[in-house]
Specification:
The structure is a homodimer. Chain A is of the alpha/beta class. In chain A, about 40% of the residues lie in helices and about 25% in strands. Chain A is built from seven helices and nine strands, in the order ββββαβααβαβαβαβα. The two termini of chain A are about 25 Å apart. Chains A, B: Belongs to the AB hydrolase superfamily.
């Protein structure tokens, strides 16, 4: 893990870009003498880690006493896509333009991205946990399909905050029953591209004894900021 | 409004029992020099205001800087029931024992209780707002059917936290579209007596631009304590 740049913000948070082999990432850490728990913040599908809203959430969470890390996994951000992923994205644009069903295209595209992202996130987690400034349980935040896979595969994940606004492949919908960590699912009630009933079915399917659904009015990008604060308290309950 | 007893608690909260004509109530106020906003805390249907969990919630909310008031409205707690209400309760016990449908019985029982409770809550609100220790916007917490009626009838109610675990008569389900204040609906995902889909439909129906649903695992009485704290932050956003 090589740090390639660093910036100290006025709230005391230090943000550092890093590379780990081919994987580019960002680590935010609070001004803290003691090691802190870690939250992995994964953005949905194709969004780059540089997205301002993700950075703002990460800063806020770090200022509250967490190390926060994100990466552009394979196929995300500027990372090269496979020929099949490029084809699926082209098919998706065409199908959306024509008003045709898109589920099967998402199934193959998101399925492929999850498969390729999981080992990179685990490698990143291994490296992060060797840093002296990080210790304690690990939380996950963001991209649901990836998070389900990670939470099932990696017992180091102890609490998960998921955003329901993204396609979840059938394999991960099945796996949801095996997720048993405390979880918080965020739903935008009128998310244009993501049928509400699927999110409710997914919430029902999770195997966790403690699971909470927060639904708010509005479309895909309308999640109110107070949910970032609610999310912070969710992590405080389980990681501190 | 006559105060009949008072008790100062270790958290500084003063709780006072009062009567207002035939209406018995309790008012909790924080140790505060300035007047505070008010939260009306209504318990579902037949539960008495003396219920320990309601008292604990009221104390917690008052300690956070609110005046909190509850009453036993007509037909609630020890208050006399009408002959029709007594009959409906007997019918309910019989139907539940026999595994028969209960919706129509609830329709008449809860409908009657809401009709009788609304004027008493408004009278109580009038009296509370004359007290020097109370000023500012009014919030509502608890019994959904009553709260819908009050929020539609009384513009002084500025934010509403509802608990989905109670029968909502058809008239109030219709009226939900006219509720426009910010609201937080609490749902127990596996509430034995209250079908989940009805609560989701009700959430969908509310006319409020800002509405949030919090769903948690478990049955009717399993709401986790952290929801009291989340509720507090909801009132802080809208009443302070």
């Amino acid at each position: 893990m090589h740090f390639t740049s660093e910036e100290r913000h006025e709230d005391g948070v230090l943000s550092r870009e890093f590379t780990l082999g081919e994987i580019p990432g960002i680590l935010w850490t609070p001004r803290s003498a003691a090691p802190t728990p870690l939250v992995l913040m994964a953005h949905n599908n194709g969004l780059p880690m540089a997205q301002p809203r993700l950075r703002a959430r990460a800063r806020h969470t770090a200022a509250a006493g967490y190390a926060v890390a994100t990466i552009d996994a394979a196929g995300c951000g500027d990372r090269p896509r496979t020929a099949a992923e490029e084809q699926a994205r082209a098919d998706l644009r065409r199908a959306m333009g024509a008003g045709e069903p898109v589920d099967e295209i998402f199934e193959s595209l998101v399925g492929s991205m999850v498969e390729r992202a999981v080992p990179e996130w685990r490698t990143t987690l291994d490296a992060l946990l060797t840093l002296p400034e990080i210790d304690g349980p690990v939380g996950y935040s963001g991209w649901t399909a990836l998070g389900i896979r990670l939470a099932v595969a990696d017992p180091r994940i102890r609490a998960a905050g998921f955003f329901a606004g993204g396609y979840v492949p059938r394999a991960q919908r099945e796996e949801a029953r095996q997720v048993t960590v405390p979880l918080l699912l965020l739903l935008q009630w009128d998310d244009e591209g993501n049928p509400r009933q699927r999110a409710l079915d997914l919430f029902d399917a999770f195997g966790s004894e403690e699971k909470t659904l927060h639904a708010n009015m509005g479309g895909h990008v309308g999640t109110p900021w107070f949910e970032v604060e609610d999310g912070g308290r969710f992590y405080d309950r389980h990681l501190k």
